[in-house]
Amino acid sequence: MTLTFIVDRAETDQRRRDAALRELSFGAAPTDHMITIEYHVDRGWHEARVRPYGPFEVVPTSRALHYGQGIFEGMKIFGTEEGGAVAFRPDLHAARFRRSAERMAMPPLPAELFIEALEMFASVDGDWLPSGRGTSLYMRPFMFGTEETLGFRPARQFRFCLFGTPAGSYYDESVGSLSVWVSHEHVRAAPGGTGAAKCVGNYGGSLLAHTRAVAEGCDQVLWLDAHDRAYVEELGGMNVFCVVVEDGETVLRTPPASDTILNGVTRRSVIELAGDLGLRVVEDRLAIADLHEMAQDGRLREMFACGTAAGVAAIGRIKDGEHDTRIGGERTPGAVTSALRERLLDVQHGRVASRMAWLRPL
Ligand code: COI
């Protein structure tokens, strides 16, 4: 499916762009334009626009504001050594956006339209792409129910929007590694719920525990399963991996993707890249009690978070009630974490010939 985009060009404020490219703080400086596409159950997808980035009107009765019919994606455009721009695995993001929509009783945006929106965006704001390694144009496609009236049923009218912002590292790299706080009181997702969808409610429901984690001096919440409150699920917005030595072999362990865990594009990429580095990956349940024990006896060598915004980020500490467990050297990412991080960045910047299929030139 294709649509003809109506293009309304913004004035470029070069000083604002130069400052954004210098500072590279996450999400703080949207580029000049955004894309919008409307949906109505009687008309399907229509009215595709490139327009100046800025506020749009939302009626107070809009369903997204009351019943949370809202989903989003986070994805990245990287620069290559040859001066090109490439989107990292946009097909997987388009597919997940469709799955999230289906879970939330929203119309799945055709993948071709998702890609077209991305291409239109890159054609007007490609000059906002920063140039250093690890920097990118972070893209935020999202969709929400706009229909007026408060009756409780799925909306019949939606807006898709995509905007972008130049990004550097999500975490301050001088900090070295992240610390995570284990939430026992609150859960992020339960079986049969929306945990695997990238829907706004998952994030809103996580913020109280996040606030608690920060008050405990930590960067992120480490979520446990809803039933036993014993098995590691994910972090707030990132997946989690452990590097464990088992019978002399270094193994990468991560909880299996399920209906309570977001099936991260970076997670999947890390699993595939681990194979390139000769590492065996085990997708199996990880008990929090075992993590503390393995950290004590030295089997747990490294732990890291991964996600689109954060890339691969080392975890050096788990704070969990009376446990304050340190993993590896707190200030230095371990060898496996570093190797995976660098390999992923090499792929993202177009330096790995065997992984070029993951990149879509824009
Ligand atoms: C991303 O990694 O792109 C996300 O959407 C997570 C968000 C919490 C920053």
From TrEMBL:
Catalytic activity of the protein: L-leucine + 2-oxoglutarate = 4-methyl-2-oxopentanoate + L-glutamate; L-isoleucine + 2-oxoglutarate = (S)-3-methyl-2-oxopentanoate + L-glutamate; L-valine + 2-oxoglutarate = 3-methyl-2-oxobutanoate + L-glutamate
A Pfam family annotated for this UniProt entry: Aminotran_4
Keyword Heme part of the UniProt annotation: no
Superkingdom of origin organism: Bacteria
Pathway linked to the protein: Amino-acid biosynthesis; L-valine biosynthesis; L-valine from pyruvate: step 4/4; Amino-acid biosynthesis; L-isoleucine biosynthesis; L-isoleucine from 2-oxobutanoate: step 4/4; Amino-acid biosynthesis; L-leucine biosynthesis; L-leucine from 3-methyl-2-oxobutanoate: step 4/4
Cofactor: pyridoxal 5'-phosphate
Enzyme class, broadest EC rank: transferase
E.C. designation(s): 2.6.1.42
Protein name: Branched-chain-amino-acid aminotransferase
